[in-house]
Amino acid sequence: MSTTYTSGKQAGVFFLPNGEPIYALFEKTRESNLSPSIAKWSCFAIGNYSDAMKAIIYSASACVGGSLQGEGRRSIKPENYIAAWQKELANPVRILTEGRTISVNFKRDNKCWRSEDEPKVIEETKKLCEQLNRADLIKPLLEDNSNVTLSFDTEAEVISALFKVREGVFSAYRLFNHYDLGSMHVPLELPISDKTFIPPTVQAYRLPCEGMLVKFGDGPFKAYGRYGTYRIDQTFIHEVVLTAELHRPGAAKSLMKILKDAICNATELDENTAVVVHLPEQIKGCLQSYLSEVNKDGGLIADDEKTLTIKLSEFENFRTDAYYVYALLDLDDLSVEWQFANTEAAPVQKVQGATDLNQMSFF
């Protein structure tokens, strides 16, 4: 597995005509699977505070599985990674854009990694140009494949939208280099914490073969096998920490502690608890492969062939780690329902620590 080693962070900022700050996030990284492995600065995200935090938090989730580490193979806690970036966002370096122009070319600058994705990005570019009231850019960019010159003085909003992280159509590293950063820091205030926002609770239960059953807020229960438990943290960061940080800057540390407490204090479910998988009309690919392994001895699929039911007591019948069961439950396009043996003990109670969520300090 390839690992990215990070050794530096820096946030740059320029301002739109209405005064809104637009961040450019630079990180100094190197890849373990490259030789020579040389650390280089690169701009990986452009956008307002909300856009920047989304990019940071998605990168932070990579710390969990070890694919993002510090130099010297030093592990990084995702909450510490987020906190370090927030310090940068509060004191970014000014990017001087006055009098500056850029030349963009769709073929050269678009964010496609595969040629088959290009038609989709072309449509996204058309829609974006229309939303920006710049339909005049469609022909030179997409039809003529020519270079288009844009000025920061008069078209800063257009430039920031085209290169915006996740929603834009051009790659951020094409717009700025690290040497574009000046030496003047611009202290900025982070968004004011929304005291009315209540983060969702966490519910966690132990499953056979070192698996976990987890639910965040009103979301569905999700099962994780022993080899995928690190993904609990990743899902939590994507679904809970991201939303919480946008409402309460600095919430990540308290939330990650709550998740850890929930996992440590998770209790086992009654062995008669069952999971019901609602099968689609067409069974093919991975689903067909996993079903053939799970239902090898028959008797699990209903007579109408629309549902498959497995009790927790049966998990260990499918390899010692119940690999195929958890692989089946991990498929995104399946509808899964958990039937708890004891309705009074069904997971409707908050796990230890979750009840104190709103009383904990987020600063």
Number of strand segments? 15
Query: What class, by secondary structure content?
Result: alpha+beta
- Rg over CA atoms: 24 Å
User: How many independent structural domains?
Assistant: 4
Following the backbone from N to C, one meets helices and strands in this order, namely EEEHHEHEEHHHEHEEEEHHEEHEHE
Q: Please report the number of helical segments.
A: 11
Average pLDDT rating: 87
Poorly predicted regions: 343-363
Describe the structure.
31% of the residues lie in helices and 23% in strands. It starts with a strand and ends in a 24-residue tail after the last strand. The protein contains 11 helices and 15 strands. The chain has 4 domains: 4-95, no CATH class; 101-177, no CATH class; 202-269 and 349-359, no CATH class; 274-343, no CATH class. The strands form 4 sheets. Strands 1, 2, 3, 4, 5 and 8 form a 6-stranded mixed β-sheet that branches. Strands 11-10-9-12 form a 4-stranded mixed β-sheet, with helices on one face. It has a 3-stranded antiparallel β-sheet with strand order 14-13-15, with no helix packed on it. The model is unreliable at 343-363 (pLDDT under 50). It is α+β, with helices and mostly antiparallel strands. The radius of gyration is 24 Å and the shape is globular. α1 runs antiparallel to α3 (78-90), α1 (49-60) runs antiparallel to α8 and α10 packs antiparallel against α11.
